[in-house]
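Because showing beats explaining, we think one record worth quoting, sequence and backbone structure tokens together, and here it is:
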Amino acid sequence: MMDTSAAFVVPRDLKLPAELVGDVPRPSPDEIREGPLAQKNRAAFWGCLVAAAMCLVLSVVPFVDTLALYFLPLGYLCWISLGLFVIALFSYLGGGALKKATRHVQHGSAGFGRVVELIKYPSVVMHGQPTAHAFRATMQVLHPNSDQPVFMQVKSGDFSTHKKDRVETRFQVGDFVPVVWLPNKFDETFQIYDFLELTPMASLQRGVDAAKKPLWQIFLLAIAVPAFFFVLFWNVYALERFMPLEFDFAGRGIWPMVTGGVLGLVIAITGWLATRKRAKPPAGNS
């Protein structure tokens, strides 16, 4: 934490981002479409839409009714599909967090605040283990109603705990950073502009994860998750329905098991090596 007794004086050479300058209502910059918040919104929409289609297709497969005897939700795939479709539709039309954040650009007020304290902390803890982290910052800023310095505490969006070491801010304690708020709602809507994550530049820095994810990766993930559980419960169904009365596991069953184990190990090692290669910084960078 920095010394808060120093006078609050904003350096004259600081300039607000171009999208925060001008009379309201301001136009939304094109960069918002490529920002982290818009990417999350698209991923949620397409993920729910693909998952809804998968559930609808599986609901008409003949043996799913038998599988539902072992896993009850499979008997309600049509309703699950409808629910996912409604969620995707509301995500697309409503805009959610993206629409709320964009209002700060279109109708909000902007200024500069000084970072007094900045910490990265576990924001979600389940069974004693952190599953998500976030940044919490204490800011010194001039209150718009009194022009007197006040202290405000704000929080960034959550990010996965396994990525916490790769997520950083562009600023540090003592820096002056752009802050935004909605008119007549300063105390309720005050936020650091970077914490809104509206544009690729004004956002948390995620290193190799900052690159835009291709649409095919979202499709693949949305298909892989239900497919995994389908295969899992299909194995239970197949073992119960098609298991032979006599089978020599020691003689005939060992080799398929060993082959599957070796293939799984090779895939796991290949994925681990690919992840290390992505995470390794380019030669010459410190």
Remarks:
- The radius of gyration is 25 Å.
- Residues 249-279 form the longest helix (31 residues).
